[in-house]
Amino acid sequence: MSKRWFRRLLFCAAILIALYFLLPFLLNSLARSLIRRDALAPANVVIALSGDARCEREKYAADLYRRGLARKIFVGGMPVAWGVHTGDAAKRFLVQQGIPAADIIVLKDPWNTRLEADLLVQQMRQNGWRSVLIVTDPFHSRRAMHTIETAARDIQLSSQPLPPEQSRWQPEAWWTRRRDVWLTVRECLSWINTLAGGWR
Amino acid sequence: MKFQMSKRLRILFALSVTMLGLGVLGFFSLPWFLTSPVLTETTPMPTADVIVHWVTMSQSRADARVAALYQQTKAKKIVCASMPVSWDVYAADFTRQHLLTLGVPAENVLTLHLPLEACSAPNDRRVAQYIKAQGWQSAVVVIDPITTGSRLKKYFQQEGLNLVVTCAPEDRDELMNKWWKTHWKIQWITKSAFGVLLDSAYAECW
Question: Who has greater pLDDT, B113 or A110?
Fold first, then answer.
């Protein structure tokens, strides 16, 4: 074997070994970069972004409300089968948690984060609210904030993703779990769509 | 000035264009790879002990189709199955209500609440075990148009049950109709394609 081929082989082997040790670190960093958590401070409203069938987002939003950090709670939802609207279901869930119905506002049919941002901003401006706490899953938090900040530069936003123990997604070694792979890859693809100014 | 490519570059260019072309063709062919054949009015309908209504697509028109199948096949029962869509809210309960308004007797429509799972296999197994536990021998399962990746056949065979898997023709037609132009359809199809790939890599989904 010539010296040139030997050097190429050695180079490839070195790259593979480096990747073997670096890849977990890079993949974990990628997952952690999806998370944005701001300092917690009181706001006019808290919104539990739609998309959590377990209602953990709504539960955490209720917790923030009960601690006096917000005066109203927004929930979103959409029709999913005959007679079922998940927004109404989320509202019922919050009422069962002891939140007064008058303090819960349902955003109807936000089919994606951008539409949800538009509906939220509309409501905020109609009611003269200036600050909002955004509750969602950690993997969704950075993109959600980017989307809502783009739609509402005049509103004070604070990202308050679920605490790690409440989230269905864990960033560490996410590639070893089927559910977390799907959530992470989907979020990365959604980021591409968002940055490309893509579909609603 | 003439532009000249070396032979190696020409081969690389040709390969790239071919790969791109195959990729685009593959992407636009996805619905045909992923969807199932359907039972239509002209297809001989097999008799079954039960029809399982397990459609998750929100734009579905399967309710009317399931009610019609029930009346045509004289199947004994319908079971509406679903995972929760919100806390303690199951689409299956509402689907059942709708079937009653379509004339299906209440005593012949049951519901099956399934837990949230990352992939379909665990619930496919639960449905097969439920059918067996009820003493039924055969089932027609109506699901979403995308059926590739379903493990129903595997688990029904394990339980010694006969199975026909189908979808509502209207749902399939709707999904296939200019799907590349509609956000929710692209999401649905690419999510399903990705899910099929992922399921093959994780033992919990076999």
Answer: B113
- CA distance linking residue B128 with residue B46, whole number of Å: 18
Task: Report the distance separating Cα B25 and Cα B35, nearest Å.
Answer: 17
Token code pair at residue B9: 């570059």
- For the segment A109-168, what is each residue's pLDDT rounded down to a tens digit? 766 777 778 888 888 888 889 999 999 999 999 999 999 998 888 899 999 999 999 999
CB atoms A111 and B194 under 8 Å? no
Helix axes A178-195, A113-127, angle to 10 degrees: 70
Q: Could you tell me which residues come within 8 angstroms of residue B150 by beta carbon, excluding any fewer than 6 positions away?
A: B120, B124, B143, B165
Mean pLDDT, rounded, for B169-182: 86
Number of H helices, E strands in chain B: 7, 7
- Gap between the Cα atoms of A73 and B107, Å rounded: 40
**Beta strands of chain B (E only): which ranges?**
50-54, 77-82, 84-86, 89-90, 109-113, 138-143, 162-166
3-state secondary structure of A158: strand
B87 with A182: Cβ contact below 8 A: no
CA distances to A39, A118, B161 from B141, in Å = 50, 39, 12
Whether the model pTM is above 0.90: no
Residue found by looking up tokens 């401070």 in the block: A41
Residue A186, min C-alpha distance to chain B (Å): 8
- Residue A50's nearest CA partner among A79, A86, A1, A104 is A86
Closest residue, chain B, to A92 (C-alpha): B87
The whole-angstrom separation of Cα B193 and Cα B126 is 23
pLDDT at position A38:
97
- R_g of chain B computed on alpha carbons: 21
How far away is chain B from the Cα of A70, in angstroms, using its nearest Cα? 23
Give the number of other CB atoms < 10 A from CB of residue A42.
Answer: 14
Nearest CA-CA partner of B188 in B51, B78, B56, B97: B56
B114 three-class SS: coil
Flag if B98 and A82 touch (Cβ within 8 Å). yes
Q: Is the pLDDT of residue A196 over 90?
A: no
